[in-house]
């Protein structure tokens, strides 16, 4: 059994809010797990990597991506399964280079995320690991009713218009291998047929999704931007609210009481007005410009109240590149989250939400050696994570 000693680095382990100096750990090369971790008194080993006083932190867990999407072409409809798969594989490489070592994908046409996750479980596909949601749950005409297939033979989401249809669709995704169920509780920026504060799924429909998912070791994530839809999702018992653009003070209190996570995806709102003028449909620009100020303010209120934040970027949406995911840390702190909250969002919080915290999310003995090596201290300044040439290790192997 060969092992590699990594020594001489400053550690943010994902558990403590401080940097721990003079750290070292030993990785079992076969399992890719940390077998010993300590400080000072560095042991001897045949294989040694000296990290020369740099900063080590856990690989980033992005709890909200859309790996099927191309953020430059912004093509959303009439995609073939081959085109989706090709795009996914390209985007996974960009994610890994950015330091994203694990993702929860939140809606993928043709269930491609489930199919590729199965290949990963079989050891046939490496790289950034996928926790899949498959096709999301949307009402007819809602934020998920995009036409897909060369001949328009299917839709991006499962179209559900009753509790019975929701139950069957969730069970179908379970059968295929989904680990999370994505429900579209409100309208959204990218759908032409609705407004972001439209309420699209009923409380009973979302409750049905939660009941089915939770009875089968799956979680539920709710796309929810308008206040009424956010409230419906929280009352229905979802595990995470995605975006949360108009979350009210009352629902912030309810999230704290229930332990509901918030995945803000601030960068998804930032990139549309920043880069989309003259390139995107006017309805997208109008929607984004109409709510971004309120969105940032409400997320700041939630963060200051202590709502559990997870790290997600909605990567794949317009001009929201997979390589740009680390901008989210800067945005989170700019609206009111502390550095500690932002860093815990991508480490222990996202790992707990995804149910992978036994092996991922923090750097400690017995866990997988997914880690980044940075030149500067991320606890002092989260922009340190934006370093383009940072080293990325996946299961103890340097991949960038």
Automatic annotation (TrEMBL):
Record field: transmembrane: none
Molecular function in Gene Ontology: hydrolase activity, acting on carbon-nitrogen (but not peptide) bonds
Keyword field: Hydrolase
Domain Amidohydrolase-related, chain residue ranges per copy: 55-388
InterPro entries: Amidohydro-rel (IPR006680), Metal-dep_hydrolase_composite (IPR011059), Metal_Hydrolase (IPR032466), Metallo-dep_Hydrolase (IPR051781), OTAase-like (IPR057744)
Superkingdom of source: Bacteria
Protein name: Amidohydrolase family protein
Organism in which the protein naturally occurs: Companilactobacillus halodurans
């Amino acid at each position: 059994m060969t092992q590699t000693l990594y020594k001489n680095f400053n550690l943010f382990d994902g558990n403590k809010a401080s940097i721990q100096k003079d750290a070292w750990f030993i990785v079992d090369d076969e399992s890719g797990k940390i077998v010993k971790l300590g400080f000072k008194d560095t042991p001897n080993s045949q294989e040694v990597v000296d990290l020369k006083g740099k900063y080590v932190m856990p690989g980033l867990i992005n709890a909200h991506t859309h790996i099927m999407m191309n953020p430059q072409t912004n093509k959303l409809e009439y995609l073939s399964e081959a085109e989706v798969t090709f795009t996914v594989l390209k985007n996974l490489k960009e994610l890994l280079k950015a330091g994203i070592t694990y993702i929860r994908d939140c809606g993928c046409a043709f269930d491609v995320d489930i199919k590729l996750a199965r290949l990963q479980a079989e050891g046939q596909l490496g790289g950034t690991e996928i926790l899949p949601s498959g096709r999301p749950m949307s009402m007819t005409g809602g934020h998920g009713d995009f036409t897909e297939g060369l001949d328009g033979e299917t839709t991006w989401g499962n179209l559900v218009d009753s509790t019975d249809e929701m139950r069957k669709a969730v069970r179908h995704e379970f059968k295929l291998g989904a680990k999370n169920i994505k429900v579209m509780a409100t309208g959204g920026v990218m759908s032409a047929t609705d407004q972001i504060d439209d309420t699209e799924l009923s409380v009973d429909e979302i409750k049905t999704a939660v009941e089915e998912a939770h009875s089968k070791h799956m979680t539920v994530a709710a796309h929810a931007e308008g206040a009424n839809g956010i409230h419906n999702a929280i009352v229905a018992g979802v595990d995470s609210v995605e975006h949360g653009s108009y979350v009210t003070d009352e629902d912030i209190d309810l999230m704290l009481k229930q332990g509901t996570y918030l995945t803000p995806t601030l960068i998804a709102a930032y990139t549309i007005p920043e880069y989309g003028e003259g390139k995107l449909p006017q309805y997208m620009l109008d929607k984004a410009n109409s709510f971004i100020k309120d969105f940032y303010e409400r997320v700041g209120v939630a963060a200051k109240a202590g709502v559990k934040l997870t790290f997600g970027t909605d990567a794949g949406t317009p001009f929201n590149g997979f390589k740009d995911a680390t901008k989210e840390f800067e945005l989170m702190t700019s609206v009111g989250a502390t550095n500690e909250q932002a860093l815990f969002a991508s480490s222990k919080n996202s790992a707990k939400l995804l149910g992978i915290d036994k092996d991922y999310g923090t750097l400690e003995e017995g866990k997988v050696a997914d880690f980044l090596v940075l030149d500067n201290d991320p606890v002092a300044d989260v922009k340190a994570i934006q370093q383009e040439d940072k080293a990325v290790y996946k299961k103890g192997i340097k991949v960038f």
